[in-house]
Design goal:
By secondary structure, chain B is an alpha+beta fold. Chain B is built from 16 helices and 15 strands. In chain C, strand 2 and strand 3 form a beta hairpin. Classes of the chains: A alpha/beta, B alpha+beta, C mainly alpha.
Chain lengths: 501, 501, 99
């Protein structure tokens, strides 16, 4: 495979700026890679090589003409298929939106286009981002490039596998309970969920409105920082978007210093239920941080025990309402039963045919959680538990600047292994969910391979709301410490994929 | 439609106590919709004032119209309400094709205004203070057109067409507490209450308040209970009442219908009913259950509204005078007797007369023309007098021409019809058609002489005090002058002539 | 708190306008019972405590848009995804009853 596509995005950006590589060449190299491997990995739901190359050519032309371009102009990127794009279908991994081409671009995509990054394609996801393995995509799962019989994580398995298999240098994902971080953890890549409101949700097909965030997916912390700097910012179209800028993540990522920083280890997110190989890598990372001058403290967040329960009330409730708009009237699938069906019957038949079982399950659960007589005991109670979890974090951040935990209890499991057991599937997100409930930012970086199975292990970093820069600072520093030990990047341990002729 | 049995109205009131409750929806006249920047406009081509937000495309997010919020606060203040220092929007979840999101963004347990009251004066002179429970912000739905049925109504329709131009228009819903003690005047009270609401919102300038256009809509709740019983009877809610007259008729009808049923021992079905103006009756709609499970929860895509004290006081300072105060003031200014003034109010002519007086007419003259000839003309055309195409300035000009002796009553009425026909202002019409009263005594004397020639005895009769005789001559002169003589002047001249000889 | 029964599942599916087969009703009843049992434990966390609800993770208030017209979609764009349309409007099957 071309050496070009193995490079970090930050390197590619330098090559583009200096003119050593053209955007067309770079984009084509990635398209060639997809032709070679995506049949097996299945990261993409949609690609349009022509539009990508046309965008690349446009940037090359403008650069040659001496025009002032954005720092990242010409760098190809992949976008999760729950962000609207006017020049490609946006399906959110669901049959109910198969073939739907939106008449408007999401704000994040607008920013990407304005900066001149060619969009390589739309990546696969669990249907409506509900899931942690991408097995619930209506269009077939994506596969983990480290082992094609295993899941690449979810819901954003398309974005994680696309960068892990070198089909794109960077990608955009979304994270509601770990959908960027868990896939990063199991594919040896970097995934970041910004503070709630840091990146616009306008044009992100909503799952749970108070939990969803858009974030970068990459193979390197600095790469993620560059993308977050591009896509973050206030958007008047998103009433929940933060009014202020959070500063430069790239600057934070370049500091490479953790001296004097207090790192809190979350007592409740380790030990029992966590794979031994995961725990071993985690402990090694703690040791590295300590050696580098950080102060390690133990913190306790007792209400995390209830986080999954609260999450699986809040998410389905909000999702059941957000997904009501899929009713066959204005867009998407329409299924008309025999005879002279009423609109009610058309709606019910359409949603029956268009939604997969996990989506239906959550909609019904969510409807229950909100229904009169149940509200106080379910949704209402979950909103109160959310307060308790925020309080736990607040107390922890009194003692620490950044909190850490393993990103997930296990490494990548086999495709099909947890499909029949929703509760087991939900446990993948046990460590990632609290950050979404509290609105605070979280990042996963790769910290090695588990002894048992030689599969990637991720470490999660958490910071207070608006303190995203701390994640990039500590994350980049820890990443470098590991790379210095390994002598190479995490992704360089990945086995070579078979190349289709 | 089967005919309902109705109890005699007086008998119904003897047997039962009437309790009413009114929900009024006011459409705000903001330039844009409640949650998006689309035009708030009537009559445009279907689906041309729409965007991803108001047609609920996946990914779209709402953004609150500041002016709509301020207008809502103003309405609340004008109704003597408390303004909530902190309130959220809520989702009201139900499926219907005119509701793009299949939920309405509204307010649930945190309305922007609450606990107010409105004192209403009835035509009879009695005064009632209606307690207002709340006023809250919400959005309107789109418009459905039913095709294929025989009457354009929903029953028997083959399919329906949806236009979302009006979807998302800001509404303020004003809800009263149950109103007791209106007795036989319940229908009039309902109408008078809505009339007052109209005056208020029109006076505030926040709504065009035209009921025939749906700017102000009323749902009337009616229940009966035996005198002395504390428990409220089952109520029905009547919708589709599009005028003040309909409100009165519908409430009266429901009282009679419910009384007849209760007297027979039949329970009242709690349901939504529709008012049919043509039949003068209500008919059963969907059975209404208070267990209509709307699954309200706080709208996660919008942040709380926390009006500052400064904002509230600045809006309070801008409130126009209360309708009751305004009425007292103008009645005193115009010097109308109570009965005269009540006529004007009941005919909804306050604004018109005020405009006419401002344009220079004497109040009594304004009243005479509006409640007299203009009302008569409107009636003959089956219109409401406020719908006539004539301005207060025109009416004022007309009265001034009469005062100046340039027109007599008969001519003025003729000129009026030409003004209504769109021929211009009264002065223009008089000039164009040469309709001025003949004030040239010479011409009048000539005509008198001509008439006397045919009736020589009249002069003697007048000298003997038999004034009735003058009538024949005056009539003849008026006919000869084609009505352009001033009858009073003719009489004067005739008497002069009689006394002179 | 009601137990999850097949009737309840059917009722909830009806409220959410999703047709469900008998087999799905049975499967969902079983799965949802398990899930509901496990999520009901949120109430354990709250026992004895008076905790306010948090509906918005990052506290913010008073975010408004000025009352200024913004560009709309064209009629064509608005209808572009519609499964059926006519006369410039979205077309749907007959409605069962009036709201």
């Amino acid at each position: 495979m071309s050496e070009l596509i193995r490079k970090n995005a930050s390197e590619l950006v330098e090559l583009l700026k200096s003119g050593q590589v053209s955007s067309v060449e770079l984009t084509q190299a990635h398209l060639d890679r997809s032709a070679a491997v995506d049949q097996d990995v299945h990261s993409y739901l949609h690609q349009n090589p022509e539009t990508a190359l046309a965008a690349a050519a446009d940037i090359d032309r403008r650069r040659a003409a001496g025009e002032q371009l954005h720092e990242l102009a010409g760098l190809p990127i992949a976008v999760k298929d729950n962000l609207t794009t006017t020049d490609a279908p946006t399906t959110s991994g669901s049959k109910i939106l198969e073939g739907w081409v939106p008449p408007y671009d999401s704000t994040v995509v607008k920013k990407i286009r304005a900066a001149g990054l060619p969009i390589l394609g739309k990546t696969n996801l669990d249907e409506f981002a509900m899931g942690s393995s991408t097995e619930f995509s209506a269009f077939g799962p994506s596969r983990n490039p480290w082992d094609l019989t295993r899941i690449p994580g979810g819901s954003g398995g398309g974005s994680s596998s696309v960068v892990a298999s070198f089909q794109a240098p960077v990608a955009i994902g979304s994270d509601t309970g770990g959908s960027i971080r868990f896939p990063a953890s199991v594919t040896g890549t970097v995934g970041n969920k910004p503070t709630y409101g840091a990146v616009s949700r306008y044009g992100l097909i909503a799952l749970a409105s108070s939990l969803d965030q858009v974030g970068p997916v990459s193979r390197n912390v600095l790469d993620s920082a560059l993308i977050q700097d591009l896509i973050a910012g206030h958007d008047p179209h998103d009433s929940t978007s933060l009014p202020e800028s959070l500063g430069s993540m790239a600057d934070a990522a370049r500091k490479l210093d953790v001296k004097g920083m207090r790192i809190g280890v979350i007592k409740e997110l380790m030990g029992e239920g966590f794979q031994p190989g995961v725990m071993n890598r985690f402990k090694e990372s703690i040791a590295l941080l300590e050696q580098a001058g950080a102060e390690i403290v133990e913190v306790s967040c007792p209400n995390f025990e209830y986080a999954i329960a609260a999450y699986y009330l809040i998410l389905p409730a909000e999702a059941s309402s957000n997904l009501a708009k899929f009713d066959s009237v204005r867009f998407g699938l329409r299924v008309a039963p025999e005879g002279n069906p009423t609109i009610e019957r058309v709606m019910a038949a359409t949603r029956e045919a268009g939604f997969g079982p996990e989506v239906k399950r959550r909609i019904i659960l969510g409807t229950y959680a909100l229904s009169s007589g149940s509200y106080e005991h379910f949704y209402g109670a979950a909103l109160k538990v959310r307060t308790l979890i925020q309080r736990d974090f607040a107390a922890a951040f009194e003692k620490a600047d950044v909190l850490i935990s393993p990103t997930a209890p296990t490494t990548a499991f086999k495709i099909g292994e947890k499909l029949e057991d929703p509760l087991a599937m939900y446990l993948n997100d046990i460590a990632t969910i609290p950050a979404n409930l509290a609105g605070i930012p979280g990042m996963s970086i790769p910290i090695g391979l588990a002894d048992e199975d030689q599969l990637p292990v991720g470490l999660q970093l958490l910071a207070p709301a608006r303190a995203d820069a701390r994640l990039y600072q500590v994350g980049a520093a820890l990443e470098k410490m590991h790379e210095d030990v390994w002598g190479k990047r995490m992704i360089d341990f990945a086995p070579e994929l078979e190349v289709r002729g | 439609m089967a005919k309902d049995e109705l109890m005699n109205y007086e008998k119904a009131l003897e047997m039962f106590e009437v309790v009413i409750g009114l929900e009024v929806h006011v459409e705000l006249n903001t330039k844009t919709k409640m949650f998006c920047g689309c035009r708030n406009e009537f009559g445009d081509e279907p689906n041309t004032n729409v965007c991803p937000i108001c047609i609920a495309l996946p990914g779209a997010l709402p953004a609150v119209n500041r002016t709509a919020v301020e207008s809502s606060i103003s309405i609340g203040l004008a109704l003597g309400c408390e303004i909530a220092p902190n309130g959220r929007f809520a989702r009201k979840n139900y499926f219907y094709p005119d509701l793009a999101k299949n939920f309405q963004t509204s307010q649930y347990d945190e309305p922007i205004a609450f606990d107010g009251e409105l004192t209403v004066e009835l035509p009879s002179g009695s005064v009632h203070t209606v307690q207002i429970e709340r006023a809250h912000m919400e959005e309107d739905a789109g418009k459905l057109t039913h095709i294929g049925g025989s009457t354009g109504r929903i029953q028997g329709a083959e399919y329906s067409l949806v236009d979302y131009n009006r979807a998302g228009v800001p509404l303020v819903e004003i809800v009263t507490r149950p109103v007791y003690g209106a007795g036989a005047e319940a229908p009039e009270l309902a109408a008078a209450y809505v009339r007052s609401i109209r005056e208020i919102v029109k006076g505030l300038g926040v709504s065009d308040a035209r009921m025939e256009r749906g700017n102000v809509r009323c749902d009337a709740n009616v229940s009966l209970r035996p005198h002395g019983q504390e428990k409220l009877g089952t109520r029905t809610e009547t919708k589709n009442v599009n005028s003040l007259r309909s409100i009165e008729r519908a409430v009266r009808y429901e009282i009679q219908r419910q009384a007849a049923l209760l007297a027979k021992g039949t329970a009242i079905v709690q349901e939504t009913r529709h008012w049919h103006e043509d039949k003068g009756a209500t008919s059963a709609g969907r059975p209404k259950s208070d267990a209509d499970d709307y699954r309200y929860f706080p709208e996660p895509d919008l942040v709380p509204v926390q009006p500052s004290k400064e904002l509230i006081e600045s809006l309070r300072a801008k409130l126009p005078e209360k309708p009751a105060d305004r009425r007292k003031r103008v009645q005193a200014e115009w010097g109308f007797a109570d009965l005269e003034f009540r006529d004007v109010v009941n005919a909804d002519l306050l604004d018109q007369i005020e405009e006419t007086v401002k344009a220079g007419a004497k109040p009594q003259a304004a009243r005479k023309w509006w409640t007299g000839e203009l009302a008569r003309i409107a009636n003959s055309q089956d219109k409401d007098v406020t719908e006539l195409e004539i301005s207060g300035a025109h009416v004022a000009e007309l009265t001034q021409l009469v005062d100046a002796g340039k027109l007599n009553d008969r001519l003025a009425r003729e000129v009026l019809t030409y003004v209504l026909n769109g021929e211009g202002s009264p002065a223009q019409i008089v000039a164009a058609r040469g309709l001025e009263v003949v004030s040239d005594d010479g011409a009048l004397i000539a005509a008198i002489d001509a008439a006397l020639a045919k009736q020589p005895d009249v002069l003697d009769a007048i000298r003997e005090g038999r004034m009735q005789a003058a009538g024949a001559v005056i009539g003849a002169v008026m006919q000869a002058m084609k009505g352009s003589a001033d009858a009073g002047r003719v009489r004067e001249l005739l008497i002069e002539k009689a006394n002179a000889s | 708190m009601s137990e999850i029964t097949p009737d309840l599942v059917r009722h909830l599916a009806g409220l959410s306008r999703i047709l469900v087969t008998d087999e799905e009703v049975e499967r969902f009843t079983e799965q949802l019972s398990l899930i509901v049992d496990s999520v009901a434990k949120v109430n354990e966390a709250l026992s004895g405590l008076d905790v306010p609800a948090t509906s918005h993770p990052i506290p913010m208030a008073n975010v408004f848009r000025e009352d200024i017209v913004e560009p709309s979609l064209t009629q064509e764009q608005a209808l572009s995804g519609a499964p059926d349309s006519g006369e410039g409007r979205f077309r749907v099957a007959a409605i069962l009853d009036e709201e």
